[in-house]
């Protein structure tokens, strides 16, 4: 990876550009079909986490890119309560309160597949429900609506992902945190169980923290 960031004869990339370049490599490996009993190597998530360590820190642009990349990768590491998707059906990702992440996610997933399924990004507005979603990302701008959106995602069997200090407390399955200026994520297994979601051990192995009870 370092050869990509600082190849001989090339000017070293700035941290944000270096991070985005590294993410492109991490995203190149498609996510494999996920079952809790899978033993096949699934390096995509680990590569994505390691990509940030090649950069000095996260600018707003880089932070947005990393979060979008994680959201894309999360889809391939979760068994949803409805079972495998029908052939030709897309994964649907809803985004509330984070227009910048929605735009970046749409860009990153354009033409890409997860388990042979396309990814559709849906921007949610006030009053929109979570029905039909597989993942709901709730931006920090939602504030007081966070808990209600998390509850709606749980009822719909969708993976909830937040980015606030109260995300796990509000019942979110995954919450983004900044650690030493790098985007990491924490997981609530209790919340996943309430939403009838099974998370791959590969995903859990690269989480910053895993809460096993409560939350």
Report what the structure shows.
With 215 residues, the chain is α/β, with parallel strands linked by helices. The protein has one domain. It is built from 8 helices and 10 strands. An 8-stranded mixed sheet has the order 3-4-2-5-6-7-8-10. A hairpin with a 2-residue loop joins strand 7 and strand 8. Helix 2 runs antiparallel to helix 3. The chain is globular and about 40 Å long. The relative contact order is 0.14.
Look at the structure and give the mean pLDDT: 81
Order of helices and strands: HHHHEEHEEEHEEEHEHE
Instruction: Compute the number of strand runs.
Output: 10
Structural class: alpha/beta
Q: What's the arrangement of strands in the largest beta sheet?
A: 3-4-2-5-6-7-8-10
User: Helical amount among residues, as a percent range?
Assistant: 25-40%
Number of H/I helices: 8
In percent terms, what proportion of residues is strand? 15-25%
Number of domain modules: 1
End-to-end distance: 37 Å
Low-confidence stretches: 1-16, 27-43
Overall geometric form: globular
Compact overview of the structure:
Helices cover 35% and strands 20% of the residues. It has helices at 2-5, 15-28, 44-52, 60-74, 99-109, 146-156, 189-194, 201-205, and strands at residues 78-79, 91-96, 113-114, 117-124, 135-138, 159-162, 174-179, 182-188, 198-199, 209-211.
Task: Please outline the helices and strands.
Blueprint: H1 2-5, H2 15-28, H3 44-52, H4 60-74, E1 78-79, E2 91-96, H5 99-109, E3 113-114, E4 117-124, E5 135-138, H6 146-156, E6 159-162, E7 174-179, E8 182-188, H7 189-194, E9 198-199, H8 201-205, E10 209-211
Parallel strand pairs: 2-4, 2-5, 5-6, 6-7, 8-10
Antiparallel strand pairs: 1-9, 3-4, 7-8
């Amino acid at each position: 990876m370092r050869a990509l960031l600082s190849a001989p004869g090339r000017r070293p990339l700035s941290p944000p550009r270096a991070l985005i370049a590294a993410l492109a490599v991490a995203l190149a490996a498609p996510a494999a079909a996920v079952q809790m009993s899978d033993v096949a190597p699934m390096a995509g998530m680990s590569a994505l986490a390691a990509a940030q360590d090649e950069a000095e820190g996260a600018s707003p642009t880089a932070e947005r890119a990393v979060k979008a990349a994680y959201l894309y990768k999360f889809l391939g590491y979760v068994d949803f309560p409805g079972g495998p998707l029908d052939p030709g059906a897309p994964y649907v990702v809803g985004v509330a309160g984070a227009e910048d992440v929605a735009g970046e996610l749409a860009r990153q997933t354009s033409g890409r597949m997860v388990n042979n399924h396309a990814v559709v990004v849906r921007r949610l507005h006030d009053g929109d429900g979570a029905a039909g979603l597989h993942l709901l990302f709730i931006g920090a701008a939602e504030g007081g609506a966070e808990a209600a959106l998390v509850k709606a995602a749980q009822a719909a069997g969708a993976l909830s992902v937040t980015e606030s200090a109260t995300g796990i407390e509000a019942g979110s399955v995954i919450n983004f945190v900044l650690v030493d200026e790098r985007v990491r994520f924490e997981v609530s297994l209790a919340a996943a169980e309430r939403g009838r979601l099974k998370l791959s051990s590969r995903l859990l192995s690269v989480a910053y923290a895993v809460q096993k009870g409560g939350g």
